[in-house]
């Protein structure tokens, strides 16, 4: 197959030129990877923009304002992320409403005008299976989280049961067989159960009943009651596990219970012997959480005494109680939304506009270079062509590794007149020069081994 010959304006490739091509290809691939990683290239310098666009001073002022705005947004974003990483707790009040209603009581039947003379025997209107006609009452326990002032910070309303771990209602004087339902009612959250706004307890009876409503409040993060003697050492009655561990570590540092030679050992000094096993000379630092956990217990429940009244004077008797709790700051959800908005639709739109501005700036730069090229050629064609050929000759000399007109470091010289002729690279001496060069290189490699 015939080999294609190079054109008159394209010299044949040499080993030096091949290495240059490989280097250029690697640089091009690296440039592509950089463009993929950083899609938006930096804008040209202000003095370059000033030569490209007459209105660039106004654009530069706008860029300065944008830089200040970007710096402010980045600083605020860092502050918000730092605040989101810290547990911020706010104190709120959980208001519990307790009430009861009565039905089918004697005074209710008399008030409705249903007497025995009108309805006949009253036992005929009683259904034992459904409870119709049997006196009874309904106890209601409801609650909601109070807003702070007149402004509701958290838009998502949490149900009452989401603040509780369990609810226990204990009744007095309701023993079987008169009341087979029992005197204890319990509620525990189920995995797939939806949150509730309140609870109702339906029972039969026509007498007043004393009860106790026991509410186990759910804390997030979970809180614990510190037992003796640890509570006396750290002066803390209740707190989260992190708070208790921080107080214990502070106490160890104050009393000097950390071993002087081995900092991973805690010695029974300064009061630490009260919580350590008797006869033990010290515990390892990683065993400290396990040791502290022995003196933590669930916090005391909230006990609300209540009397269920079924007489006429106290029907629909309601009471409310406020339970102080700590919850996550509702503003954290707003801060998280603000952080997400930075990378939302608005953020993507800003990035697109900035990319468009960069493209236009570089497009203007390319147009100016073309204009300057053509204006220089139109002003002085001869001088322009001479300068252009000299620049091309210098580039070719760098590619070949020779110096123009002078014996170069590679042992050859090329006259400037010869560089302007393409047929000089098609002469027989080129193949011979390549053969000599490769033989010299292979001989040098063989001796070097």
From TrEMBL:
Residues 1-44, 105-129 are annotated as: Disordered. InterPro entries: SWIB_MDM2_dom_sf, SWIB_MDM2_domain. Residues 21-34 have a biased composition (Basic and acidic residues). It comes from the Eukaryota. It comes from Naematelia encephala. CDD domains: SWIB_like. Residues 222-296 form the DM2 domain. Coiled coil: none annotated. The lineage of its organism: Eukaryota, Fungi, Dikarya, Basidiomycota, Agaricomycotina. This is Putative chromatin remodeling-related protein.
């Amino acid at each position: 197959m015939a080999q294609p010959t190079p054109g008159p304006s394209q010299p044949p490739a040499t080993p030096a030129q091949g290495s240059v091509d490989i280097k250029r290809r690697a640089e091009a691939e690296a440039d592509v990877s950089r463009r993929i990683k950083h899609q938006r290239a930096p804008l040209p310098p202000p003095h370059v923009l000033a030569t490209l666009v007459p209105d660039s001073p106004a654009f530069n002022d706008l860029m300065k304002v944008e830089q200040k705005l970007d710096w402010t947004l980045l600083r605020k974003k860092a502050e918000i992320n730092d605040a989101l990483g810290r547990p911020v707790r706010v104190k709120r009040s959980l208001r519990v409403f307790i009430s009861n209603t009565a039905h089918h009581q004697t005074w209710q039947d008399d008030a409705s005008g249903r007497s025995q003379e009108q309805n006949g025997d009253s036992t005929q209107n009683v259904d034992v299976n459904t409870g119709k006609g049997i006196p009874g009452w309904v106890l209601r326990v409801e609650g909601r989280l109070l807003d702070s002032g007149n402004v509701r910070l958290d838009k998502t309303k949490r149900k009452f049961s989401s603040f509780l771990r369990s609810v226990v209602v204990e009744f007095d004087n309701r023993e079987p067989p008169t009341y087979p339902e029992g005197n204890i009612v319990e509620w525990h959250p189920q995995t797939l159960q939806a949150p509730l706004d309140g609870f109702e307890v339906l029972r039969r009876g026509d007498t007043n009943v004393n009860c106790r409503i026991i509410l186990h409040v759910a804390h997030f993060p979970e809180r614990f009651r510190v037992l003796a003697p640890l509570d006396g050492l750290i002066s803390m009655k209740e707190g989260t596990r992190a708070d208790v561990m921080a107080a214990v570590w502070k106490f160890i540092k104050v009393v000097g219970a950390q071993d002087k030679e081995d900092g991973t050992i805690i010695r029974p000094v300064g009061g630490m012997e009260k919580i350590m096993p008797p006869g033990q000379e010290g515990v390892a630092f990683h065993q400290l959480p396990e040791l502290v956990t022995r003196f933590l217990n669930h916090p005391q429940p909230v006990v609300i005494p209540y009397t269920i009244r079924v007489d006429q004077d106290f029907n629909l008797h309601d009471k409310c109680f406020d339970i102080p709790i700590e919850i996550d700051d509702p503003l954290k959800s707003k801060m998280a939304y603000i952080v997400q908005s930075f990378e939302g639709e608005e953020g993507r739109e800003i990035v697109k506009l900035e990319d468009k501005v960069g493209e236009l700036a570089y497009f203007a730069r390319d147009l100016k270079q073309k204009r300057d090229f053509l204006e220089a050629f139109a002003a002085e064609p001869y001088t322009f062509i001479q300068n252009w050929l000299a620049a091309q000759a210098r580039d070719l000399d760098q590619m070949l590794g020779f110096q123009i007109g002078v014996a170069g470091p590679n042992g050859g010289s090329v006259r400037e007149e010869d560089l302007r002729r393409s047929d000089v690279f098609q002469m027989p001496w080129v193949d011979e020069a390549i053969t000599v060069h490769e033989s010299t290189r292979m001989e040098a490699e063989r001796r070097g081994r």
